[in-house]
Amino acid sequence: MDxxxxxxxxxxxxxxxxxxxxxxxxxNEQPINSDAVVDAESTGQEQSHGHKRASRxxxxxxxxxxxxxxxxxxxxxxxxxxxxxxxxxxxxxxxxLPVPLAIGLAVIAFVLVIVARVGLPKDVxxxxxxxxxxxxxxxxxxxxxxxxxxxxxVPEGIIKAPVRDDAPTTSTTQMEHDLxxxxxxxxxxxxELGAGSYPGVSQAAACIDTRVAFVTFDSKAAASxxxxxxxxxxxxxxxxxxNDAQAQGDWYTLxxxxxxxxxxxxxxxxxxxTWGGTLEALGSTTEQ
Length: 288
Known about the structure:
A hairpin with a 4-residue loop joins strand 2 (about 200-205) and strand 3 (about 210-215). The protein is built from 6 helices and 6 strands; from the N terminus they run ααααβββαββαβ. The protein has helices at about 1-85, 100-120, 130-155, 170-185, 220-240, 265-275, and strands at about 190, 200-205, 210-215, 250-255, 260-265, 280. Keywords: Membrane, Transmembrane, Transmembrane helix.
């Protein structure tokens, strides 16, 4: 009985030992597999977070540059509008520069926003990325379009700078004196051109020696009506005498609200410094 009992007891002990060994072995296998899975997941998460962190500075740089381009586009558009409305307010800025610059900066801003959105990770929302650049770019395009429209409709601008007018229209003698100061003395004397024959013309005189003349008008309304007619008549006379040495040269007119002077370019340029007014080539409408 004791031997059998010992036999079965040993057998039970052996089976228990084998089961413990299997349990221990299986227990050792489970922690190894779980640790490997955890390590793989953590490695993937770290790589994903690392990719996101690496992409954030580049996207911030692109969005900042896009926003800057958008703001510059607005500034250029504003300059274009001001230049179109009042060209004389910005004499140092070429009139053809602001509008193309505003359009180009707006396009660059849009391209940078697209690149920034494409470069974001898939799980990151693209909503709101580059909003400032898009809004300012659109505003810059609108301003550029407005400036271009005003320039095409009103080439001279809506607001014009006041033209200096210091011509002594109340004194024929003083006007003749100023013209002689600019073009030289009139040795043969000034000749009246029959101002009474032309409605709205108060006085008109010419000097054959220096080839200069002047006309004064009764009112601004008369000046606007008679000025172009007088210029056309003078230009026609010069064409008829194209072979005459007296008709040769670079003829210009100097115009004020109530007066007009005609002569060679150098003489009219000198007179412009004294009287002011608007200097233009005879038969032209381009102010200088």
